[in-house]
Structure formats: structure tokens, C-alpha cells
Design brief:
globular, 322 residues, 8-stranded mixed β-sheet
Length: 322
């Protein structure tokens, strides 16, 4: 008889999840941040070539959202003020010890915050949630730029290193297709972060990796002081990426250009075309207030808080048992 009806998380892990959800809501309640809900099924997928949306059958087409970001920015443009959401999100093809195609995301937006301020708040929330399994006294916070991290770990400058040097380094580290024309410079940098830099971050506490290359800005503003870089960061603990944050891009024309660049990359890779989210662009054109936003992977935080090594250990029913 099959045993797949059973949950993969034990009762202590489920109780821990409940406590962490309560702590998350208390964290934002104390700061006057409004909890909101937005649709899971949306009219547009994401154009990002690194993310695959799950498409729903039916007419008109709908996608399970990969993040509530677009809808939340529409609320911000409509005057919501500071907001947060605890939401199920979906990404096709992502399954590993750290990935489940359906996962829980905590996403929030804070008006008027700088990159430094939103990084500080993100580290504080992570420390609050990790406190039981990893005492706060043992959670020093390191801030290091993308450029500094490459210099420290690999002796490379990612902003000026030649593509040939990057390809050679990645090939030596086992990246299949490192010499292929279809492998972009950002693919090479992502491989080095994923295999050589990220796993070494946050070993004894929390590490905020900030100022990503401008080519990886996504929905973030570029840094006026150094336009080679974007006002974007990621949070790591014990080598695991927990959160991704931006000082948000508010320029509709620039966002449209980035969407079109994504579509060209998707075409080059033979991926399905995704029509850009015209409602987001309309909201940006109306006026997005100056803000910073963060998406945090709640399941990964719960995994670290529980001392687990696989995300399944803190999920009642992962993808194969859903």
C-alpha cells in the first residue's frame, strides 16, 4: 500500500511553521504595514527567461503567478502605502532539496526606503524568524557588494572581467556549455554565484550581497553613483539564498524596454513568448511611489529554523504528494 498520503513534515515542523507565520505577521503589524491579498491566477506570466510560469488550461489563458510583485505594485500606484503579503507562488521546473514548484513567499514594499534601510529590515526579519533554531547572538550581519564578493572568493572583478576569462573559469568548474554562444555573460556570472560564492555566504550569520551588475537589474533601479550596478540585493544564511530585494524601478518606459529584452532572450533560447504585463506598465506610468521591495522564501527560512536539510521536511505535502 502506498504511503504517499502521509505528510513529509512532522508535527514539530508544522508547529514551527505556524509560529513563524505568526511572527512574520507580528513583525509587519508592529511597523504598521498592511497585509493584502492578490490573485494567484493572473493574465500574464513573467518575461524573465530564468523563470518558467505554470500555465492554466482554459480561455482566456491564465498563469499561476511566480510572485505577487506586479499586482502589489498596482496597489502601491493606487495609494495603498506600505504593504506585505504571505502568498503561495508557483515556478515550473524548480525541484530540488531547496526548491518545490509551489512555495510560500513573503513579499513586502516600504515607501521611501533606501537600499541600506531595506537590507537592514530584511536582516532583522530573518533574525527574528531564525532566532529559535539559531540564537540571535550568533547572527552577525555581513554586507558585501557583488564586486567585493567576486574579488574575495574568486579573485575576479565581475564588472570588467572579459567574457573569455569567465568562460574559461566556468569551464574549469564544470559548467556544460561554458563555451556555447547561447551561454550569456550573465549565465556565467550566475553559475559562479550559485556554485562558488553563494554557498560560502552566511556561514556564521547573515550575508547581504548587494549592488548586482546592471544587466541583472530585473525590476530594480540602477545606482546613480555607479550605473554599472543595480540597487538590488540578496540575503544568504548558511549558504542558502533566502531573499531578493530592490529599490524599485518606477520608469514605465525603461521597464518596457527590459521586458522586450527579456522577450528577445526567450526567443534566442527557444522559450515560449510571454506578453508583458500591460497593467503593471500602466500603473508605473500613472506613478509608482518611491519604494523598496523584498521577496523572501518562507519555506527556506523555516527549513533553516528547523535545522532541516531538505525543504520537504517543513512542507506538509510537497509537489509529488500534493
Amino acid at each position: 500500500m502506498t504511503e504517499t498520503w502521509r505528510p513529509t513534515a512532522g508535527l514539530p515542523a508544522l508547529r514551527l511553521r505556524a509560529r513563524l507565520l505568526w511572527l512574520t505577521r507580528e513583525f509587519f503589524r508592529e511597523r504598521g504595514v498592511l497585509e493584502v491579498e492578490t490573485p494567484l491566477a493572473v493574465a500574464r506570466g513573467v518575461t524573465d527567461a530564468q523563470i518558467a510560469s505554470l500555465r492554466l488550461d482554459g480561455s482566456p489563458a491564465r498563469f499561476l503567478h511566480t510572485s505577487p510583485e506586479h499586482a502589489m505594485k498596482r496597489l502601491l500606484a493606487a495609494g495603498s502605502g506600505d504593504i506585505y503579503q504571505v502568498s503561495k507562488v508557483f515556478r515550473a521546473g524548480e525541484r530540488s532539496a531547496l526548491h518545490n514548484p509551489e512555495f510560500t513567499m513573503v513579499e513586502w514594499y516600504r515607501l521611501g526606503m533606501s537600499l541600506g534601510q531595506i537590507m537592514d529590515e530584511t536582516a532583522l526579519l530573518a533574525a527574528t524568524l531564525l532566532r529559535d533554531g539559531w540564537p540571535a547572538a550568533a547572527l552577525p550581519v555581513e554586507q558585501i557588494s557583488y564586486q567585493q564578493a567576486f574579488a574575495r572568493e574568486l579573485g575576479l572583478d565581475p564588472l570588467i572581467a572579459g567574457e573569455g576569462e569567465l568562460r574559461q573559469r566556468c569551464a574549469g568548474l564544470g559548467l556544460a556549455g561554458a563555451g556555447s554562444a547561447s551561454t550569456t555573460r550573465d549565465d556565467l556570472l550566475d553559475f559562479l554565484v550559485a556554485t562558488q560564492i553563494g554557498p560560502r555566504l552566511g556561514g556564521t550569520g547573515l550575508t547581504l550581497l548587494h549592488h548586482y551588475p546592471a544587466s541583472q537589474a530585473a525590476l530594480a533601479q540602477l545606482d546613480a553613483a555607479d550605473p554599472r550596478t543595480a540597487l538590488r540585493f540578496e540575503l544568504y544564511a548558511r549558504g542558502v539564498e533566502l531573499a531578493n530585494g530592490y529599490v524599485e524601478l518606477a520608469d514605465a518606459a525603461e521597464q518596457s524596454r527590459r521586458f522586450e529584452a527579456d522577450r528577445r532572450q526567450r526567443q534566442q533560447r527557444g522559450l515560449p513568448d510571454i506578453t508583458p504585463d500591460e497593467r503593471l506598465l500602466a500603473a508605473l506610468a500613472t506613478g509608482l511611489p518611491g519604494c523598496a521591495g523584498v521577496a523572501m522564501g518562507f519555506d527556506r527560512v523555516a527549513m533553516l529554523a528547523a535545522g532541516a536539510t531538505r525543504i520537504d521536511e517543513v512542507l506538509a505535502f510537497p509537489w509529488e504528494r500534493a
